[in-house]
Fold this sequence. Notes:
Blueprint: E1 6-15, E2 18-28, E3 33-37, H1 44-51, E4 59-64, E5 67-68, H2 74-80, E6 81-84, H3 96-101, H4 116-128, H5 144-157, E7 162-166, H6 174-186, E8 190-194, H7 198-204, E9 207-212, E10 215-220, H8 222-225, H9 228-235, E11 239-243, E12 250-254, H10 263-272
Helix pairs in contact: 4-5
The structure holds adenosine-5'-triphosphate.
Adenosine-5'-triphosphate binds next to strand 2 and helix 1.
Keywords: ATP-binding, Nucleotide-binding, Transport
Domain ABC transporter: 6-238
GO molecular function, one term: ATP binding
Amino acid sequence: MSAAELGVENLTVAAGARRLVREVSLTAAPGETIGLIGPNGSGKSSLLRAVYRVLRPEAGRVLVDGADAWSVPVRRLARTLAAVVQEPGGDLDLTVREVVAMGRTPHKRLLDGDGPDDTRLVEESLALVDAAELADRPFDRLSGGERQRVLIARALTQQPALLVLDEPTNHLDVRHQLAVLGLLRRVPTTVLVALHDLNLAACHCDRLYVLKDGEVVAAGPPRQVLTARLLAEVYGVAGEVTLHPRTGAPHVVFLPEGTTPSVRAGARAGAEAGGDRPPVRVRGPRGGCPSREGT
Ligand SMILES: Nc1ncnc2c1ncn2[C@@H]1O[C@H](COP(=O)(O)OP(=O)(O)OP(=O)(O)O)[C@@H](O)[C@H]1O
């Protein structure tokens, strides 16, 4: 697997007269994990759909290693980009192993069977998402979380240089959430992932882009982006953000409606964005959040 460079340039996505994504630009360097966060309806899925070539943009470009994703042949794009999406794929009368093997399709010629390398990749991918024991089960009868892991295995089997995922932790229990996001950190590919869980995003992403009403309202490393002010302005909730002493990542605690955030916590969160308090001391790289191998 290699890693692609992603460039989204002034992308606007519309449905009829409605603009779902408005002049969004973002970049992902090869190997980066980029998180897309924002409230319901802020345009995350629409942006991802334009990147993985399902929703044609009204304006702007999606560049994968410099090539326009909407101009290259679909098959070529599928050898570079894999997507794990929320749309139900319809009933698939296939076993889990067969579904995962579909990830090899872009790399094969018409009527090619599965070679030993294909078979090995399928088994390896299933093992990576802790789904080896599901291989012979009918895909249609899996639980939501099992399906999700199998679809991630299919994407890994595709050996993409760019992996686009829309809420991949949906349906997953906490162990599998951590395992899947840890895995995404380890695969040597570029990752663009929409996430709702801000603490998972903080811990597993190199940089975050925050969408609101289809526009990017903040972008940068999690420590800069995730502040109490952002929670209030973008999500309309009160919360406190501290740097977790074990992981070194921002840690968000949401406060029930009617609670007044403490001044201390608010100041701590702001410190990372250039506020007036020194940052909380954190442990070094062994703190806890998974990092890229070799970094
Ligand atoms: N095909 C469509 N036609 C009209 N409106 C649409 C269409 N697809 C999405 N929308 C609207 O566009 C807005 C953005 O939707 P989108 O699914 O991109 O948001 P999201 O940030 O992924 O939301 P969520 O967090 O709820 O998944 C929403 O208001 C949604 O209702």
